[in-house]
Amino acid sequence: MEGMENREDLKSMLPFLPLLLGSSSLFWPSKVVKSLETLSKGPLYSEVDSGELLFNAISHIRDSLALPSLQPVAPFAHGGYALFFDELISRAEASKWFEEVVPALANLLLRLPSLLESHYQDADYLFNGVRTGLRLLGSQEAGIVFLGQELVAALLTCAFFCLFPVSDRGSKRLPTINFDHLFEDIYESYSKKQENKIKCIMHYFERICSSMPEGFVSFERKVLPLEQLPLCVSYPEADFWSKSVVSLCLFEVHSSGFIEDQSNGALEVDFANKYLGGGALRSGCLQEEIRFMINPELIAGMLFLPCMEDNEAIEIVGAERFSNYTGYASSFCFSGDHVDKRNVDGFRRCKTRIVAIDALCRAGMRQYKCTYLLREANKAFCGFLDQSNCDHHKSLFQDGGSQGSQCMETDKDTNVVVKDFPVRSPPVF
């Protein structure tokens, strides 16, 4: 087995992780271990029984990391933690959080080094010859990362404790990952939606601390190569689409309901920002941000997936849903626990397949120009395409578009389902 220090996948992630790498293993600094062990013993020992004291403990852990790339948290994040845990939730809820959840999260962070090491040891054997280890999946780098749900939970706990280094993230075009802005926004400009976004995340932590899920989530960067490559479908030109003789396929239109409730095994569309997650960890609360709140495991992809280019999409399989909700945007409201009853596949992933495809930003009338219509068509094609079934797709192109096509859904109000596209499963808009 290759040593930790020699793994290229781990090397690509080290600047973005709070852990240290020794000669053969990952570890926390000793002061961090001591702080986490104190937290893990509960408030009678740690004396952390309020949002204000929790933020102080987080600050102490951050200081103990002594990482030069660990920049200061958002200026008013401390006020957000105090406001949420000391004023916006009931004393009973706060007592449960500090007596049960915070100690469990501290224990989970203590296990993070061993969870990551086990992940890298297993990653080499999940698929024959296919890399699945956690790594920076950069622009134009098609690939897949498989993460256990327990590891995802540990990574999200790091984000809640604001432990991820951030100074290099901008240069790599990575989205926000720590939760400091999520809490700062509720303090600087209180809104009901922001309070309820945080309630969804806190509910997720409560659930995983009482019963840790044991499945997997996969994150795939999908790329339509701009040049012709063997065994790949490349980026189609306008001429291909204009000469296509594919007829419209059978489809269903649902005038009510939500994508996440009526997918029927379809590919579910995340109308994404080019930065995965959009404003999920800030003040955003539209379709993408809501999905990231009710399926918080999606947030893990924000750690290592830089923004999408015009020929790229991101597909996430296995993200479990934990929360119910009502409303949209300013009326968004957490409405209790959701038990995800979807079956799992052969890789122990929940059968939830979400594809993030970003539309042109503020396109206006230019969206009707050929260049931009091509961009949107190919963006969707990239998201729905299964490159692993390449021979079938190549014949589609060689025949000038004379073979099938398949399934979609539109927005919160209208779901469109079309069948017979060469994709892994029908997409849902």
TrEMBL record:
Organism's domain of life?
Answer: Eukaryota
Does the UniProt entry include the keyword Hydrolase? yes
Pfam families linked: PARG_cat_C, PARG_cat_N
> What are its E.C. numbers?
3.2.1.143
**Stretches assigned to the PARG helical domain:** 90-221
Pull one GO CC term from this UniProt entry: nucleus
Q: Does the keyword Nucleotide-binding apply?
A: no
**Record GO terms (molecular function):** poly(ADP-ribose) glycohydrolase activity
Q: Sorted alphabetically, which keywords does the UniProt record give? A: Hydrolase
Question: Which family, according to UniProt?
Answer: Belongs to the poly(ADP-ribose) glycohydrolase family.
Q: What is this protein called?
A: poly(ADP-ribose) glycohydrolase
